[in-house]
Fold this protein.
Amino acid sequence: MTFKYKHGFCILRCQPFHIGHDRLIKQMMQECEQGTVLIGSAQESGTHMNPLPYFIRKKMIQNVWRKSSDYARLQIIPVKDTERIPWNYHVLETINKELPDRPRPDIMYVGDNREYLFFASDVPNVGLCSRTTQSFPFLSGNMVRDMIALQDERYKEFVHPENQELIEKNFYEDGLV
């Protein structure tokens, strides 16, 4: 199989991992020989904006992708927030440190072109993938978290069935809502 790019990456918080995130990863894996998902704010958990710890967010992606023939080409790594050095440098150094055998990324996948601005001088290509569709025009992590907090069962329309039990255990049983 021939791919358009060698190594693509995206940065997602996955609070929780939803179908919009998955749509972006699918596009990346269709176009790239290797793909890397960086889970942002990896050091954060137990807050309103970042209720889930990194390992749960990584598990959500694995639950959906491990059955895919593309899974061996996909890496999932943490990236912590920083204010000490420029964000683009920090992200690219994190990739290089965690995945030294992978080539430097030649494309970044984003849901909004503004997310690419920090990287435009370091990553030659951008893949824009809308996380929303006609069927799901208002999809956002905030919306999904709010529905979970309200115990609104409609949240299940926006997350993969493989993750519903994990979400309910970590939001309801562990008292995050």
